[in-house]
Automatic annotation (TrEMBL):
<dbReference type="InterPro" id="IPR001706">
    <property type="entry name" value="Ribosomal_bL35"/>
</dbReference>
<dbReference type="InterPro" id="IPR018265">
    <property type="entry name" value="Ribosomal_bL35_CS"/>
</dbReference>
<dbReference type="GO" id="GO:0005840">
    <property type="term" value="C:ribosome"/>
</dbReference>
<keyword id="KW-0687">Ribonucleoprotein</keyword>
<feature type="region of interest" description="Disordered">
    <location>
        <begin position="27"/>
        <end position="48"/>
    </location>
</feature>
<comment type="similarity">
    <text>Belongs to the bacterial ribosomal protein bL35 family.</text>
</comment>
<dbReference type="InterPro" id="IPR021137">
    <property type="entry name" value="Ribosomal_bL35-like"/>
</dbReference>
<keyword id="KW-0689">Ribosomal protein</keyword>
<protein>
    <recommendedName>
        <fullName>Large ribosomal subunit protein bL35</fullName>
    </recommendedName>
</protein>
<dbReference type="Pfam" id="PF01632">
    <property type="entry name" value="Ribosomal_L35p"/>
</dbReference>
Length: 64
C-alpha cells in the first residue's frame, strides 16, 4: 500500500502543538492594515486555536 500524502494546503495553514492542538493564523491580516487600529492588529496577529469541529476535518487531511 502506498504512503498517505498530506494535504499541502492544509499543512501550510495549520500547525500542530505539542499536545496535538491545531493552531491557525488569524484572518484579516493580509491587507488594509492601515485602517485597523494598532490594538486590533496586535490581537489579530496572535495564533488562534482551531475549533474542534474544524480540527477533526483538518487532522484527516494531515494524515493524523
Amino acid at each position: 500500500m502506498p504512503k498517505m500524502k498530506t494535504n499541502s494546503a492544509a499543512s501550510k495553514r495549520v500547525r500542530v502543538t505539542g499536545k496535538g492542538k491545531l493552531m491557525q493564523v488569524g484572518s484579516s491580516m493580509r491587507h488594509n492594515l492601515e485602517h485597523k487600529s494598532a490594538r486590533k492588529r496586535r490581537a489579530l496577529s496572535a495564533d488562534q486555536v482551531l475549533a474542534p469541529a474544524q480540527s477533526k476535518k483538518i487532522k484527516k487531511l494531515l494524515g493524523m
